[in-house]
Amino acid sequence: MTKMDVFIDGAKELGLDLSDREIEMFSDYKRLLKEWNEKINITAITDDDEIDIKHFLDSVSVFKSGLIGGNERIIDVGTGGGFPGIPVNILKPDTEVVLLDGLNKRLKFLNEVIDTLGLKNISTVHGRAEELGRKKEYRETFDIAVSRAVASLNTLSEYCLPFVKVGGYFIAMKGPDVDEEIEQAEKAIEKLGGQIEKRIDIPLPSSDIVHNLLLIKKVKGTPSVYPRGGGNPKKKPL
Ligand SMILES: C[S@@+](CC[C@H](N)C(=O)[O-])C[C@H]1O[C@@H](n2cnc3c(N)ncnc32)[C@H](O)[C@@H]1O
């Protein structure tokens, strides 16, 4: 089996006691990530312990939001190698998780992970967030939209908030520049129907990294003009 001790110990520090089956699933996920990463570019992080800290522990730190009880419909926007959506579904198999990404080759990898691990209630969707957020089957149908390492908060809010039902949450997983990002995104969040509720700082075990979760509540519907197409959420953030 792949080396997993840093993840197992770190998860305990985050309050998660992993079962043997869950550890085996994360181990298979790590093996596939390393294998596929030799053929297609999924992640720059390939060292066993670094995967444990920067991908697995960082992903499961999303449970510190206190918003994922286990039955939510969740979209992971710009999921890349499946972070945080796959770890969420491994540990809470009753959540319904949609993994969205604009790069199809990464979704092929994710479909193999889903098959090998035998995950249920999880699917992949290929497309740009700003296009799918206008489609009826996705728009305002999720309890939670979550996203890590995809765009700055003003752009990311336009990608994510349209997916969230009124009363639901957008969880932005952010790094040290979050205060500056919040300042630049306040207007956008309000226009899109969101309201910043809480910021939770999370020191990642076995590292000196502090990440944070920004919890943004959807307090009213997103106006139909958003998200804008043509790359505007990124080129001209609200
Ligand atoms: C740096 S990776 C992060 C992946 C993963 N969330 C993580 O934390 O490891 C960013 C991912 O977001 C995707 N992405 C960026 N903009 C997007 C958009 N507008 N719509 C869909 N996917 C997007 C990219 O294809 C890429 O896979």
Automatic annotation (TrEMBL):
Gene Ontology terms, MF aspect: rRNA (guanine-N7-)-methyltransferase activity
Broad class of where this protein is predominantly found: cytoplasm
InterPro entries: rRNA_ssu_MeTfrase_G, SAM-dependent_MTases_sf
Gene3D superfamilies in alphabetical order: Vaccinia Virus protein VP39
Top EC category: transferase
Keywords per UniProt: Cytoplasm, Methyltransferase, rRNA processing, S-adenosyl-L-methionine, Transferase
Coiled coil region boundaries: none
EC number: 2.1.1.-
Subcellular location(s) of the protein: Cytoplasm
Binding site residues for S-adenosyl-L-methionine: G78, F83, A129, E130, R148
A Pfam family assignment: GidB
UniProt superkingdom: Bacteria
Gene Ontology cellular component list: cytosol
Family: Belongs to the methyltransferase superfamily. RNA methyltransferase RsmG family.
PANTHER family noted in UniProt: S-ADENOSYL-L-METHIONINE-DEPENDENT METHYLTRANSFERASES SUPERFAMILY PROTEIN (PTHR31760)
Function according to Swiss-Prot or TrEMBL: Specifically methylates the N7 position of a guanine in 16S rRNA.
Annotated protein name in UniProt: Ribosomal RNA small subunit methyltransferase G
Gene behind this protein: rsmG
